[in-house]
Design a protein that fits this description.
The chain is of the alpha+beta class. 22% of the residues lie in helices and 29% in strands.
Amino acid sequence: MGVVFKRSASGATIRDLLRRYQATVIGGVDGAAGSEYILQVPDPGTTLQALDSLVARLEREPSVRDVSSVYYRTPSAIYSWHQGDTTRPAMPGQLNLPRDSTLTVHRPDESLSLYYRNIAGIVFDDTTSGTTIRALLRRYHGTIIGGSTYTGSFGAYIVEVPDPGPDFDKLDALLNRITREPGVSYAYGLTYRSSIGLR
C-alpha cells in the first residue's frame, strides 16, 4: 500500500497503525502533499474486492490522508532485446484541453492555480522503449491526447487518465506513482487551460 499520513499525525500514531495492520515500511517517496509510506501488509486475499476493502479501511483511519494500491512494476530492461521496441507511440498533432473546469483542483500552496485532475504530462527516459510506454498506459488506463516538444530529447506525452479524485492529494499521489514507474523520468500536472509548449 502507498499511505500518506496527515501532517498532524505523530510518530506514535503512525507506529500504532503499523502495529494494528501488521504493516512494515519498505519504502517511501516525498511529494508536495506529504511523504508517502510504502507499506507491506499481510495478504488481504486473492480478489480485487479484498484489496479494495483493505484500502477503504485504511482510508477511514483518522490519521490517514490518502491510500493507494501499488502497481506491479515490470523492469523495462526486459524489453530491450525485442525488435521494434524503440518505436514510441505517436504524439497527436493537436491538443484540445477541456475548456470546462469540472475536473480541476486547486493546489493548496498555489491558491490561484487550477490543475486538471485527469490529465498528466509524462516524460520518459530517452532509452525507454515503446513497449514499456504502451504497457504503462494500459496499467493506468491512459490515453495520449497530445505532446510537448520542449521537454527532454523526445518530449512529454500529455495523457488523459481516469479521475483520481476531487483532492489535490489524490492527483499528487498519482503523479508520484507514475514517476516511480520504470522508464519514467517524471510526471507532472497540467494547469487549467495550459497550452505553453504543447503542439
